[in-house]
Amino acid sequence: MSAITAKVRIPIEERISQCDIFQDIEIVEGLKLEGTTMELKTIMFPYVICLNQDCDLLSDYRDKNNPQGTNKNCRLLHIVVAPLFNSDSFKMGTHWGTLFDSSSVIKEKETKWKKIMDNEDPRYHFLRFDGKSQLPDMIIDFKHFFTISTEFLYEKMPQRLCSVEELYREKICQRFAFFQSRIGLPD
To answer: For 106-126, what is each residue's pLDDT tens digit?
Structure first.
């Protein structure tokens, strides 16, 4: 099986949707206080993808925009996102930049790379985009994900590039859930 090209739509909804892709999202990694000095450490992610279920994102949006706010138990405090890595950087093992040494170089003809491209490795999801998005081939590493406050991500709506079409987003989120629910076994 070869990589499937994911169709995207340029966002038309005013709310965050499942598998929306955002560009240049900076998160706070830590805060260090020493006396009167404060050091704030941040990480800039070139691309992230939203992994929440669309029904939850819709309920959150409706509730926050309802003047009566009758269903407050539908609100989301945070949204789950995962970094999207450029596949060329990933192959070179440089996708984390200076944060940490992530891996060695993966050769294009290696079995490992073929499994990643064919989405046969449960840890990774390979995305080849259609021409609408102008995005390069990307990889999601399901081992690395984090949450962002819903309010913060709504402030970043101008940085939303596109959204993966419904057919493809379900597969991404199912694979994320499968990887996270695996049973850890000793080596």
So the answer is: 766 778 888 999 999 999 999
In the predicted structure, residue 1 carries a pLDDT above the cut 50: no
- pTM surpassing 0.90? no
In whole angstroms, give the CA distance from residue 4 to residue 127. Answer: 7
Report yes or no: 13 and 65 within 8 Å, Cβ to Cβ: no
Strands 5-6 and 124-129: parallel
The label of the residue with tokens 């996270």 reads 180
The Cα 129–Cα 106 span in angstroms is 21
Closest CA to 107 of 120, 117, 99: 117
Of 177, 179, 169, nearest to 55 by C-alpha is 169
Q: Is the pLDDT of residue 97 over 90?
A: no
Distance (Å, whole) CA 111 – CA 121: 11
CA geometry: angle at 131 spanning 49 and 170, to 5°?
40
d(CA 12, CA 162): 9
Chain centre distance of CA 179: 14
Q: What does 69-98 look like in DSSP terms, one character per residue?
A: -TTGGG--SEEEEEEEEEHHHHHHT-TTTT
What's the pLDDT score for residue 139? 95
